[in-house]
């Protein structure tokens, strides 16, 4: 309902934000229930905004607006849709500084990292603007002399998009871009911790000239009710969700009665394996990028670091030295490389996992205790971790690096695969034969080999097992938003 000076005074273009839902091309600045919710800066506790707390009826209204807009949007040429996405891409780049500021203030990550997220998200918009014109069908030889068979692809329809707080811009961009490119319309439910980034994106789509109803945002704290409506409403053809496996299972159950299409990017438990022939300096750099980006709050973070016995001590010494150079603080301050965790509850979860490791006999070589300042948690190095500890099975989602020792390649693969998750994995080594064996043996949707940075719009992002299904990015990223139709003509 209101934006505070703690937010607007830091923006070059304050008009970029409106504190309200965006439904059918109009801004809903008042909730029909008369409720609002606060958006706070996790680094300072300052109130950034009070946003209308929308729920079921607003979700229905947004779905109706998206349904009304979808047929005309799909009827436009691919080039028309692509041209509007290119305008959106240009606006994202032009306003990248402000978008990064909004992101840092509501989520906490360092500003330079936030700007990197904005440009990463813009990359998906640009990529799918180009892919809009490459949705190809097929002609198939007929089964009789009279038969003429062709296959076309059509948009699924209205898509419900549910995004997490840890990448509030990029997760939205990589879902809405392919959906809009192929002719779908979108109803987005952002995380209540970080709705402002989604509302800023809505503003940019409005400025870009997208038709009313093509993109809608429903901010609210009643995630269960909004999610239920998106899953149960017969006019929503597909759900695209990024979040926890637990919530993903609930959404799948709710979608079952409608046999609704789904894409799920769920939890992770990424192993990071260092073999004895690895370039240790490169491996340490890769571990730092993978583990400490976003203060460890990513689904593809290195969650379990496995180091072969012969190089274990040398790797740990190098990693500890690099970790000592991290600067914890407010993401808006220059030089900060590690921002706060999102909430006090997140800090408590990290504390529990570290305490469990300590009780099980691990050595806390660095950090290991809250700073005492709001939701900041120091970079923490744990040595002597083993598979009995909770952090071997659960996502840490914090700046904690547990190091496990292993002896053989077979042991490393067995340990790495000993999880119900299968999103991302990493390993470092130089033996070409082993690289091939390990890459094929790891049960993950994404494998980084001698790199800790794997995310890009040109490659398919997604997992296997309980990390979900479907892919985002690349030429494969449009397929989940399309129906295949077979046409048989008798002549």
Automatic annotation (TrEMBL):
Statement: the UniProt record of this protein carries the keyword Oxidoreductase? yes
Q: Which Gene3D superfamilies match?
A: Aldehyde Dehydrogenase, Chain A, domain 1, Aldehyde Dehydrogenase, Chain A, domain 2
One BP annotation, GO: gamma-aminobutyric acid catabolic process
User: Does the record carry Oxidoreductase as a key word?
Assistant: yes
Q: What are the residue boundaries of the Aldehyde dehydrogenase domain, all occurrences included? A: 32-486
**Superkingdom per UniProt:** Bacteria
Annotated InterPro entries? Ald_DH/histidinol_DH (IPR016161), Ald_DH_C (IPR016163), Ald_DH_CS_CYS (IPR016160), Ald_DH_CS_GLU (IPR029510), Ald_DH_N (IPR016162), Aldehyde_DH_dom (IPR015590), Aldehyde_DH_Superfamily (IPR050740), Succ_semiAld_DH (IPR010102)
GO molecular function terms listed in the Swiss-Prot or TrEMBL record: succinate-semialdehyde dehydrogenase (NAD+) activity
Q: Keywords of this protein's UniProt record, alphabetized?
A: Oxidoreductase
PANTHER family xref list: SUCCINATE-SEMIALDEHYDE DEHYDROGENASE, MITOCHONDRIAL (PTHR43353)
**Family the entry assigns:** Belongs to the aldehyde dehydrogenase family.
Q: Note one Pfam family from the annotation.
A: Aldedh
Checking PROSITE patterns in the record gives: ALDEHYDE_DEHYDR_CYS, ALDEHYDE_DEHYDR_GLU
GO annotation, cellular component aspect:
cytosol
Protein name as it appears in the record: NAD-dependent succinate-semialdehyde dehydrogenase
So where's the catalytic machinery, residue-wise?
265
The lineage is: Bacteria, Pseudomonadati, Pseudomonadota, Alphaproteobacteria, Hyphomicrobiales
């Amino acid at each position: 309902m209101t934006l505070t000076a703690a937010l607007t005074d830091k923006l070059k273009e304050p008009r970029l934000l409106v504190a309200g839902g965006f439904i059918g091309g109009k801004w809903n600045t008042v909730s029909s229930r008369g409720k609002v919710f606060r958006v706070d800066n996790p680094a300072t506790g300052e109130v950034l905004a009070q946003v209308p707390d929308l729920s079921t009826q607003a979700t229905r209204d947004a779905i109706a607006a998206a349904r009304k807009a979808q047929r005309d949007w799909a009827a436009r040429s691919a080039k028309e849709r692509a041209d509007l996405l290119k305008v959106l891409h240009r606006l994202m780049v032009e306003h990248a500084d402000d978008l990064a500021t909004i992101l840092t203030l509501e989520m906490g990550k360092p500003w330079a990292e936030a700007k990197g997220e904005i440009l990463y998200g813009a990359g998906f918009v640009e990529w799918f603007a180009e892919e809009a014109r490459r949705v190809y069908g097929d002609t198939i030889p007929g089964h009789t002399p009279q038969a003429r068979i062709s296959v076309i692809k059509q948009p699924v329809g209205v898509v419900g998009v549910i995004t997490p707080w840890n990448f509030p811009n990029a997760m939205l961009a990589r879902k809405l871009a392919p959906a809009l490119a192929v002719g779908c319309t979108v109803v987005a439910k952002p995380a209540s911790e970080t709705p402002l980034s989604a509302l800023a994106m809505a503003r940019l789509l409005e400025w870009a000239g997208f038709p009313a109803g093509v993109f809608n945002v429903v901010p609210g704290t009643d995630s269960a009710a909004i999610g239920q409506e998106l899953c149960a409403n017969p006019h929503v053809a597909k759900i695209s969700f990024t979040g926890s496996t637990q919530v993903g299972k609930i959404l799948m159950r709710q979608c079952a009665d409608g046999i609704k299409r789904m894409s799920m990017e769920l939890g992770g438990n990424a192993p990071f394996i260092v073999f004895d022939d690895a370039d240790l300096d490169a491996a340490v750099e890769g571990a730092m990028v993978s583990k400490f980006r976003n203060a460890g709050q990513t689904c593809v973070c290195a969650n379990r670091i496995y180091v072969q016995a012969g190089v274990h001590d040398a790797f740990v010494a190098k990693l500890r030295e690099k970790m000592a150079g991290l600067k914890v603080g407010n993401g808006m301050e220059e030089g900060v490389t590690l921002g706060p965790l999102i909430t006090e509850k997140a800090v408590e979860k990290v504390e529990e996992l570290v305490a469990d490791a300590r009780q099980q006999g691990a050595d806390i070589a660095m950090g290991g205790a809250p700073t005492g300042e709001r939701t900041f948690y120091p970079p923490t190095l744990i040595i002597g971790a083993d598979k009995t500890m909770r952090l071997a099975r659960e996502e840490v989602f914090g700046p904690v690096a547990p190091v496990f020792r292993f002896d053989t390649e077979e042991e490393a693969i067995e340990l790495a695969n000993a999880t119900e998750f299968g999103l991302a994995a990493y390993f470092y080594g130089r033996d070409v034969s082993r690289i091939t064996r390990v890459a094929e043996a790891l049960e993950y949707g994404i494998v980084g080999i001698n790199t800790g940075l794997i995310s890009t719009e040109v490659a398919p992002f997604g997992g296997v097992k309980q990390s979900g299904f479907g892919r985002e990015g690349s030429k494969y990223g449009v397929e989940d938003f399309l129906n295949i139709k077979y046409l048989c003509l008798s002549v």
